Amino acid sequence: MDRPTSYLPTLDGWRAVAVIGVILYHGRFGFFGFSSILTRLSAHGNIGVDIFFPISGFLVCRLLLQEHARVGSIRLSRFYWRRCLRILPPYYGALAGFCALAMLGVIHLKHWEIASSLLFARNYMPLGMDQQGGFYTAHFWSLALEWQFYLTFPLLLVATKPKRAGKWVFLLALAILSWRAFDAHFQLLPRVFPPANLLVRSDTRMDALLWGCLAAIYLPAIKRVVERINFSQLWLPIMMLLLITEALHVPGLYFCRSILLPALVVSTVLQPASWLGRVLEWRLVAWIGTLSYSIYLWQELFLPQVDGIRAHGGFRHLQQWPWNIVAILVVACISRYLLELPMTRLSHRPSAPPLPSVQPQYSVAGH
Q1: Of 58, 103, 256, 310, which one is least surrounded by beta carbons within 10 A?
Q2: 263 neighbors 51 (Cβ within 8 angstroms)
Q3: Close Cβ partners of 68 (under 8 Å, ≥ 6 residues apart)
Q4: Buried b / exposed e across 25-57, counting CB within 10 Å, b at 16+?
Q5: Of 158, 156, 168, nearest to 68 (Cα)?
Q6: pTM, entire model
Q7: Cα distances (Å, whole numbers) of residue 135 to 27, 110, 305
Q8: Angle at 313 between CA 312 and CA 317, to 5 degrees
Q9: CA-CA distance, 216 to 263, in Å (whole number)?
Q10: SS3 (DSSP) at 74
C-alpha cells in the first residue's frame, strides 16, 4: 500500500518499541524467571502502553489539522469511517478468536468482559486475573480508552475551532490531571468502579493522549525552536530525564510520562537523522511497528503470567517460550495482511461515497 504523504517513519519505530515493551512486561516471568535482573527490568515494559498514547494523540490531531489546512474543513464522517475500518475488523477478529477458544474450553472468559470489550468499555470493568476479572481481555482497556478518544476528540477540535484548540486541549489535560489526583485522594469513583481502574479510565487517563495532541498543534512552533538549536541529539536529554523519573519513581510519575514521552517522540520526528531516529527507521524495527496493532491484540493470549490462568490442553504449549513468540508473530501477520491492510485500503478508496463535512469559517495558524 502506498504511504500517505504525511507518513512519519519514526512513528513505526516507536510503535515497535512500545509493543516489544508490552510483550516483555507480560511475558517477563516466562522469559526470564522470577528473580532475574532482566525480569525486574522488563517490569518497566508497561511504559509501552504509555508510548502508544502520545503517538495516537499526535497522529490523529496532526491528520485532522492537515485536512483542515488542505480543504478548509474537518470531515468528521470520513474520519470516523476510516477509523472504523482501520480499528474494528482486527479488533473484533481477535475478540471472536478469544470467544471461539473459550467456547472450546481452551481459555476462560466471563460474559461481562466479552460484553464490555464489544462495547469498548473494558477500561471501566475489573482488570487482573480470572478470579478478579478476566486476564485474557484485560489489555483491551487501552483500546477502549483510545476508541473513546477517537470518538470525542474530533468533536472537541471542531467545537473549539483549530485556531483555539491548543488552549482548550491544554485546559482539558490539566483538568483530567487534577481530577485524577482528586479522585485518588478521596476515592470517589472507586466506590462505583474497581479501585484498580483509576489509571485506566478515560476520565483519569485521557490526558496521556491530549499531550500528544498538543505536540501536533504546536509542532510548527516547536520545529522553529528546534531548528535554532545546534544539537542533533535532542532525544538524549529527554531520555535521561525519563529514565531518572522512572528509576526514582517520582510523585506524579504518570504525569511525567505524559509530558516526556510526546517530547521524546517529537524529538525523533523532527530529527530523524539522530542516532535514535536512525534506529527507529531500521527496516526490521519499522516492520514490527506495522504489526504492532495486531501483535497487541493477540499477545495476551500467549503470555499468561501465572499458571492458574494458563490455557487447557495442547494450547498450553503455545504459551511457552519460544513458541509463544512464534505464535504471536504468525497470528499477527494473519491479522495484519488479511484484515488490517485490506480494510485500510478500502477506507482510502477514492470511489467511496461523498460524506458530509463540517465547514467552519476560520484558518489554522501555522498550518
Answers
A1: 103
A2: no
A3: 74, 162, 364, 367
A4: bbbbbbbbeeeeeebeebeebebbbbbbbbbbb
A5: 158
A6: 0.90
A7: 13, 10, 9
A8: 95
A9: 11
A10: strand
